[in-house]
Amino acid sequence: MKTAIVTDSTAYIPKELREKWNIHMIPLNVIFGNEAYREEIDLTADVFYDEVKTKALPTTSQPPIGQFVELFERLSEDYDAVISIHLSSGISGTYQGAVTASTMVDGIKVYPFDSEISCMVQGFYALEAAETASRGEDAVAIMDRLEELKGSARAYFMVDDLSHLQRGGRLSSAQAFIGSLLQVKPLLHFENKVIVPFEKIRTRKRAMKRMVDLLGEDAASGEPYQAVIIHANREEEAVEWRKELAALYPNVEFSIGYFGAVIGTHLGEGSMGLGWMKK
């Protein structure tokens, strides 16, 4: 059985890695006024963070179902199955779009997978699936492997400006006002597929240290982990942080990822995150 791997743009897998592992990407959309841009195709993260400095905050939308159908039909010419890995169904209808499209195509078996997370931790699932598929494993075995990895997947992140969460409907106006007044940096995570506060922390430095401590609790097992530092237009800070973390946890392989346009719309510039998963 030949299995194709699909993910969406919010996995933020670098293009060279997608090409190396033949991972197909379906983009979400970012809408500035009347103009829609396909994330990671028409709109890179760098351009996005420049644009939002001078324009009103955009909105975001999931891919049209027809886009999934078109991709799955094209893949049916060369593959027997496709595993379609998407950001958490609790924050986007993208996964459900893949589920619906899977019932509309013939000649290929589609296995939609809800990562229940986003960004490069979602990307870890896609890369694992692609590597496993390259070894000739069938789609059912790959899906079993992805479900197994869910037990060790974690992601925590902090926002620098609460107003983005408030405008995006993720935080009430009162919470945003009080949080800004007290300079609270809420540490967030995914729970039951949605983004919820994990802890309220007073400073950026303490919030980042708390993420490191949480990683340390898992890494203390000595098992090999892969981790990603995720930044919203703070690459230099991310590079420095990786140096510190690599020295602390030799059994963890660190990479640097980013909050692209869609997730960045809801979190805002300056946000930082740390995600990990067993290798």
Q: Could you characterize what this model shows?
A:
- With 279 residues, the protein is of the alpha/beta class.
- It folds into 2 domains: 114 residues, Rossmann fold (3-Layer(aba) Sandwich); 126 residues, Hypothetical Protein Tm841, Chain: A,domain 3 (2-Layer Sandwich), CATH 3.30.1180.10.
- 41% of the residues lie in helices and 27% in strands.
- It contains 11 helices and 13 strands.
- The strands form 3 sheets. A 6-stranded mixed sheet has the order 10-9-8-13-11-12, sandwiched between helices.
- Helix 3 crosses helix 4.
- It starts with a strand and ends with a strand.
CATH topology grouping of the largest domain: Hypothetical Protein Tm841, Chain: A,domain 3
| Tally of DSSP β-strands | 13
Sum up the overall morphology in one term.
globular
Q: Return Rg in Å.
A: 19 Å
Task: Compute the number of structural domains.
Answer: 2
Output mean pLDDT. Answer: 92
What is the CATH architecture descriptor of the largest domain?
Answer: 2-Layer Sandwich
Q: In sequence order, what are the helices and strands, one letter per element?
A: EHEEEHEHEHEHHEHHEEHEHEHE
Spatial sequence of strands, sheet with the most strands: 10-9-8-13-11-12
Number of helices: 11
Gap between N and C termini: 25 Å
CATH class of the largest domain: Alpha Beta
InterPro entries: DegV, DegV_C, DegV_domain_contain
Protein name: DegV family protein
Keywords: Lipid-binding
Pfam families: DegV (PF02645)
